Amino acid sequence: MHAMVLKRAGAALEWTELPDRAPAAGEIRVRVLACGVCRTDLHVLDGELPDPKLPIIPGHEIVGRIEALGAGVDALQVGQRVGIPWLGHTCGVCGYCRAERENLCDRPLFTGYTRDGGFATATIADARYAFPLGEQAADVALAPLLCAGLIGWRSLRLAGEGRSLGLYGFGAAGHIVAQVARWQGRDVFAFTRPGDVATQAFARRLGAAWAGGSDERPPQPLDAAIIYASAGELVPTALAAVRKGGRVVCAGIHMSDIPSFRYRLLWEERQLLSVANLTRQDGIDFLRLAPAAGIVTQTTRYALQQANQALADLRAGRFEGAAVLVP
Ligand SMILES: [Zn+2]
Ligand SMILES: [Zn+2]
Questions:
Q1: 126 Cα to the center of ligand 1, angstroms
Q2: CB within 8 A of 13, min separation 6: which ones?
Q3: Phi and psi for 77 in degrees, rounded to 5?
Q4: What is the pLDDT of residue 258?
Q5: How far is the C-alpha of 228 from the C-alpha of 195, rounded, in Å?
Q6: Ligand 1 centre distance from Cα of residue 104 (Å)
Q7: Labelling 25: which of 72, 91, 105, 198 has CA 20 to 30 A away?
């Protein structure tokens, strides 16, 4: 197999030949068909997340086809198309796992961060954390659903039932969540980098009631806001945009420091919370909902060996929607 490997934080990924490994008990080997590129990959590359496995094959939005089963895997079959998400393993016994909060497991493994991921021609996964995908949608179109979609869905759930929803950052997650929120009958207010009129127009095409720069106030107070961008200064900005009792959800795994702000922004029962990871139930729920909601992902395709270019383009905001690597 071949992979784009990160050998140390801050380095470029290197095209590397690796031995094909047989899946161990409980594992599957998957031929990668497509793998999405997520902002979290940039945080891994930049060394902003603690204790990565190094060297590591990044990538946690994997669409692939099973080519080998380890001992004891009976729920999946060779030839089946599956999705492999960020959540790669949980312990099953800690207090969080037993309370159906496996997203907060004390001893988890994360695909493309603490176990090898999908910027490769093949990958090995724990069979219990792979989602059957059926044969309906195209590989490239499905890939962004596996993190931007799943974690976007979890963040939307935690944002509550409010009708007017702000999205700060309108990239891979934002463009999927906007479609789900519209399907649910909500009004979407999209905030982009100031002056990014192309992304604002993209948001309006996806049904946003309003789109503007993150330095602008929405035309009405919001019931809730979700922050997908990694800029900590958006936290007080979003708190100032939500009404009394409103909620601000931070959906990223890493953010720059949040500047201090007046307590008044939080007062009146505004809530501030973060979303961490996903549970398998989130995945099952969202992958069932996505076709019903008619979600169409906007993707830019790159060859696997162009992973460094895809990551640079993501960092610079050079495409709308999501980048997807194809081996
Ligand atoms: Zn656990
Ligand atoms: Zn991700």
A1: 15
A2: 4, 5, 6, 45, 58, 119, 307, 308, 311
A3: -130, 150
A4: 98
A5: 18
A6: 7
A7: 105
Using the structure block, give the residue that is written with the tokens 């959800």: 249
Q: How far is CA 227 from CA 94, 169, 260, in A?
A: 29, 6, 17
Q: Which residues pair with 37 in a beta bridge?
A: 323
What is the 274 CA–ligand 2 centroid distance (Å)?
15
Q: Token pair for residue 283?
A: 């995945």
Q: Measure 191 CA to ligand 2 centroid, in angstroms.
A: 20
What pLDDT is stored for residue 197 in this prediction? 97
Compute and round to an integer the Cα radius of gyration of the chain: 19
Amino acid at 240: A
Residue (of 98, 50, 61, 38) closest to 311 by Cα position: 38
Tens of pLDDT, residues 114-156: 999 999 999 999 999 999 999 999 999 999 999 999 999 999 9
Find the ligand nearest to 278 CA.
2
* Cα 250 to ligand 1 centre (Å): 23
Pick the closest to residue 270 from 160, 153, 117 (CA basis): 160
Distance 176 CA to ligand 2 centre (A): 13
Q: What is the pLDDT of residue 141?
A: 98
